[in-house]
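Usage

Read records sequentially. Each one opens with the input sequence:
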Amino acid sequence: MEDAVEDEVAEVEVDDVALDADDPSPPPQPANTSTQAARTPTGNTGRNMPQILPYYPARVSQPPSQSREILALAVPAFVALIAEPLFLLVDSAVIGHLGTAPLAGLGVASAVLLTAANVFIFLAYGTTAIVARRVGAGDERAAAEGGMDGVWLATLIGVPTALLVGLGAEPLSRVFGASPAALDQAVIYLRISAIGLPAMLIALAATGALRGMQDTRTPLIASTAGFSANIALNLWFVIGLDMGIAGAAWGTVLAQWGMAAGLLGVLLRHARRAAASWRVHLGGVLAAAVTGVPLLVRTLALRAILLVTVWAAASMGDAPLAAYQVTATIWTFLTFALDALAIAAQALTGKALGAGDAAAARSATDLMLRWGVWGGVTLGLGVLALHRVLPMLFTTDPAVRAGIAAALVVVALIQPLSGYVFVVDGVLMGAGDGRWLARSMVAILVCYLPVILGLYHAAPRLLAGRDPVSAAAVGAAALWAAFGVFMLIRGGFFRQRIRGNAWMVTGATR
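and closes with the structure output:
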């Protein structure tokens, strides 16, 4: 999991120095040796001094309420996560009745739109971390203003992005090499859908702010309402009014703006209640943009890893590529369940560190890591049990089916590691450890390139002399094994970081 930074903290609140959890009665210790670092006033600047906490090896037991708190954040987040893919799924179902060219055009346009959504996901992740810290520090006004800074940044990014996508719809669509008929349909859909891009980014920022306020139910309600409206509008415009692919695009745009308006309305209510200003603060917006750069770098490096894997898959032929694509779709769905824990980790970690409560941050991290790993084990067992059934839902081609089945075995084995990695990713984002995440993801990309390039060069020998079914199975399994190496490298980096204490910086700002 990207961000808004606020320049001013309205109050300075000095916490009592935390006591050792194993001894309720010792005298107060200096801040640099306690299990929780006190936030220290710095004169009249109105700021809290960030402090790096020493690592305490003793395990802290989790209170029963902590489990409920994690579930209260994670379950609604899981449902809300699937909103945007569901928009595109509805469009696919409706447009599929119009013919092959409109459906192919939708595939091209969707690739452009999802790329934009993924690149700017830092608007949600970073805003969550900053707002959660300020909530933990007890400064509701600064938290609300930090959320509004994120929304203004989303607007400033969304408007020019929409213009770029709308005006450049045709050249952007040509990059994918679609047929002339599909290209025409993609351009129509993309030009209209570009109008909804600012709304999509505003919704990301507002969702991040609300998560930071420990509210994942409002984004769930907004997603459910938007999804329902999208279905109704698409059916009306495409079938009732016979507007073709343009009707599907307009239905999605209206649903996206409705979601954005609803989320923004709730965020403005929070701002009014906290006596916070909703007006644009150029300093805060600029700081939000600067703080978001590391998470943007992290996301771009991750996208590069995914793209180079697809490139290697394409070199193996149509059947391994098709098997990889279907398996990637299943993988994406599995990540929704594990990412829900990562979102809870962002919100709870930021809040705990903002309050100076290092014990709670470490305790929640330990608990969510166990849940993540065991959740991965559960998902892996489910995938393993269904690895021969799921391929039949996607294709009738024997080679592609064999490739999917073989790949799903590898995907199942990776799931426990995925649970660990996603939770740590969320914890570090919640801690505001964006610079380390950016550097580490670039380093992971560098480590992964020899692996995937080695597979690319070895593929002809690996697949030579095999029949199509066997070649698809071996090729798809090898691709996911390489991706598993990427996850293993990432897990190694993350384990080293989370065991240390440099990420545990307390205070309203990092």
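Summary fields computed downstream for this record:
- The first strand starts at residue 51 and ends at 52.
- The beta strands are 51-52, 505-506.
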